Amino acid sequence: MSIVRRLVATFRKRKLEEEITEELRFHLDARTQLNMEAGQTAEQARAAALRQFGNPTQQREAALQADVAGWAESTGKDLRFAARTLRKNPIFSVFALLTIGLGIGATTLMFSVVNSLLLQPLPYKDANHLYMLWNKIPHEERISFSPREFLAYTGQSQVFDKLAAFTGNGFVISDQGEPQLMFGQLVTPSFFEILGAAPEMGRGFFESEGEPGHDREIVLSHSLWKELFSGRKDALGQTIMMNGSAYTIVGVMPGSFEFPGPTTRLWVPAALRGSVFQQHPNAHFLRVLAHLKPGVSVAKAQAEVALLNKRLDPDDAERKFFSVSLTEMIAGDMRRPLLVLLCAVGLLLIIACANVSNMMLARATARQREMAVRAALGASRTRLIRQLLAETTLLSLIGGGVGVLMAALGLALLESAGSKNMPELTRVHLDFTVLMFVIIVSSLAGIVFGMAPAVNGSKADLQSTLRQGTQSSSNRSAERTRSLLVFAEIALSCLLLVCSGLMLRSFVRLIRQDPGFAPEGLISAQAALMQNRYPDPAGLVRFYRNTSERLKEIPGVAVVGMTAYLPFGGNSWGNSFEVEGKPIREGEGSSAQIRPVTAGYFHAMSIPLIRGREFAESDTETAPRVAMINQVLARRFWPNEDPIGKRIRFASDWLTIVGVCGEVKHIRLDEETQPEIYAPYVQVPASMLDMGGRDQNYVIRMAGPSGNIADDVRKVIHSEDPEIVVTLNDMQALIDDTTAQPRFRTGLIAIFSSLALLLAAMGVYAVLTYSVTQRFKELGIRIALGAQPWQIRRLVLGQAFRLAALGIGSGWLAAFLVSRFLRSLLFGIAVHDWLTFTTVPMFMLAVVLLAGYWPARRAASVSPITSLRQE
Amino acid sequence: MKRKSDVLQGSLELLVLKTLAYRPMHGWGITLHIQQVSNEVLRVEEGSLYPALHRMEQQGWIKAEWKTSENNRRARYYSLTREGRKQLEAQEQTWETVTRAVAAVLKFS
């Protein structure tokens, strides 16, 4: 702030100097002229004029001094006086500061979130030239590339100069104390280069390291380096054992680099031509990052990507390729909710300003005598306005300070509450941009809430004010302004409340959405069986058989099942499939989610069986191949038939459908359930199990409370293989994790709108109380003339009702018009959900009338004698 | 430094206010006006006029604006504000009280 002020002063000073110089020159010239007219020569005249005038530089300095001192002094005087006034009314000041602080704090908080997540460019070099490439088929929106597709495309693009592929993988580090599972990425060598990310130590990958046999290098994240090597420099060149192989550490990335996400702890080269990838050349599991050539337009790039289908999958007419900018990938989902929240706090700030404005108007009315006296003593109107504006400026600046504190506090709360499920929150911080924002917003706020009271308060009408008793005109106009402000407060909070009501209702809908299984009392234990320890898929089956038998023996355990792809576990396996005797029609979708599960899985999860039977222990490797499908698939292919006995396949064997089960949500509660094919884990072909069956998720249904189920489960699994890393989860918690974002935004908007409502109620209360005080005499006369208390109450409540009806009506209408912008945030309710649109106005009416109740009661208890004597 | 004909210290403000109450003018005009009206008895010390004008402006008694002068040059014209008018009344009263008092003391024999 002081910089700004100094700048202004400097600028002002230069301008002043020029003006004063010109003014003095005019004087000197005039004197010279006069002397010349008296007969002196030009030189004599000039010299005489200067002699008489004294040193012009000195005079100029003196005049300038007077100006600057006067300006600084009166500003300083204004501020000092303002500070004194505020100190003299501590209750008013504290309330005003809290209200402004609240408004500015909430706005700052949301702005810093928006600033960090949406406005700041991504921390990658050339970020707006980075794209991610995807493909899609009917019923599946975002599919990764297969190794074959990626290899066929690399080096062939006219629009992208660099392409990188990456895929997530679990790595068990076994030679650094207890075996631990780390999430890492297999990346093609150009990965770091595309992102423009330089390691803080060592190097990235060489092109040659993308070849089979040369891919045993590793780049550590900063955090893993700290964890394993406590930040020692000699980590470079050392080897660590991961998944049974020795990897040499070649680099460490800085702490700020966490692509593609904060859970990534390490990067290793992906040798796409090696056996691991070439065993499954057509599985879609590679995410693709592309760097746009300089000077190539986005449209041209999109056109090339759109034609990829013909080049890469000429036989698969349904597959479509597309690109999404990295910025859109990262910020796309957050933009709408964040902007809605920013608008919400904006409204809250306006309401807060209206409220303070209101309080100041009330006080200005009370201070009218002071103003009138000062005007009588010669203070000009500008002078008075300046004085009042100094007060509001002081309020808004201190309020801005309070706001920054509140925002910092709120940010800390947000991070501690939400960063587990919303890691992007850790990127949010208060920076210089935010600080500038606060300064601008609080100054604007000061002007907004200060203008009305200043203009009104300075209209001090000497005569009527000093005479008192009669209501002065400025009084009445102040009251109109105040009613207008309260009306605006009610309208805006009604708008906010309707929006948050909609979001709240949709959130309740969301968490009440049936996931298709019963998560209560259900525990999942994930065991990751790495290829190095279980090279033969038969070993996976053996491990399962031994483990599940012993898990069932744990006291308190009722049923145990196992699946390779746990709902809400974060992984899934989509595959194409065929139906015997039914060629798949265009647009019907030829991809289904494959779920290798065991007997007992449906029972443990409580997934309802609709028709047929569940898998049994008798569906072994040697038994006839069977499958179960979910209702979505059944409806799509056998709408009027019984699918039991029909045959289906996703690998070489035909599977006979033995049962139909209910729909299960797999990634989010608000998703449309995908077609699902369940196959007995032990019957899945070895090659597929090798890739898609290495995560064994045991689902354990508890019959009752158990001692320490986590330890028991770990003990069982470790007795089978002590190097297996076990991750235990409560199923309900896994589901809750997926609702974190809606919970976050719903919670925030609920808090903001409650605050808005509180402020509006305070506004109503203040206006009515004041108006009752003003009408004391009138009320006294009414009571003296026989008005009953209920009539008086009705009088005041009627005023409240009029304010409420107008405000709520306008707010309701506004909400009706804008609620469609919330559509993408709502789930399971219409944008004009009638329940919200009826209950919120009634609720608001109740709150406003409640706020008017105390003033009404006070009015009814006016004693006619005291009220008349008061004047 | 002080010359006999100079305006008495403290009375400069009063004279300026009074002059401006007659009509708005620039600093040079004020100098001439005071000199002429006082029949050349009173001379405004030109060096202290401008600092005084600017000080009074800051106090809100007078306000200034740039206008074109008689000889077609830009000049800073000063005029009285409402506050200045009140100030003038107050100072005139003070002046009269003081001069009457001084006169009374001088006449006392």
Give an overview of the whole structure:
The complex is a heterodimer of chains A (871) and B (109). The relative contact order of chain A is 0.10. Helix content of chain A is 54%, strand content 15%. Chain A has 27 helices and 23 strands. In chain A, helix 1 (2-37) packs across helix 2, helix 1 (2-37) packs antiparallel against helix 3 (56-88) and helix 13 (381-418) packs antiparallel against helix 14. In chain A, strands 1, 2, 3, 4, 5, 6, 7, 8, 9, 10 and 11 form an eleven-stranded mixed β-sheet that branches. The longest helix of chain A is centred in the middle third of the chain and has 41 residues, at 326-366. In chain A, strand 7 and strand 8 (245-252) form a beta hairpin. Chain A is α+β, with helices and mostly antiparallel strands and 871 residues long. Chain B has 109 residues and is an alpha+beta fold. A three-stranded antiparallel β-sheet of chain B has the order 1-3-2. In chain B, helix 1 crosses helix 4 (82-107). Chain B has four helices and three strands, in the order αβααββα. Chain B has helices spanning 11-22, 27-37, 46-58, 82-107; strands spanning 25-26, 62-68, 74-80. The termini of chain B are far apart. In chain B, 57% of the residues lie in helices and 15% in strands. In chain B, strand 2 and strand 3 form a beta hairpin. The A-B interface holds A 19-20, 22-24, 26-27, 29-31, 52-55, 58-60, 62-67, 69-71, 73-74, 377-380, 382-383 and B 26-28, 31, 46-48, 50-55, 57-60, 66, 69, 73-76, 81-83, 86-87.
Q: What attributes characterize this protein structure?
A:
heterodimer; A: 871 residues; alpha+beta; eleven-stranded mixed β-sheet; eight-stranded mixed β-sheet; 27 helices; B: 109 residues; three-stranded antiparallel β-sheet; 57% helix; 15% strand; globular; disordered N terminus
Helix-strand pattern of chain B, N to C? HEHHEEH
Distance between the termini of chain B: 33 Å
Strand order of the largest sheet of chain B: 1-3-2
Spatial extent as radius of gyration of chain A: 37 Å
**Interface with most residues:** A-B, 34 and 28 residues
Report how far the terminal alpha carbons of chain A are from each other: 48 Å
Count all strands of chain B and give the number.
3
Mean pLDDT of chain A: 86
Question: What is the average per-residue confidence, as pLDDT of chain B, rounded to a whole number?
Answer: 84
The number of helical runs of chain A is 27
- Tell me the strand percentage band of chain A: 15-25%
- Structure class of chain A: alpha+beta
Instruction: Note the overall shape of chain B.
Output: globular
Helix percentage of chain B = 55-70%
Uncertain residue ranges of chain B = 1-5
Strand content of chain B: 5-15%
> Largest beta sheet of chain A, briefly?
11 strands, mixed
Low-pLDDT stretches of chain A: none
Shape of chain A: globular
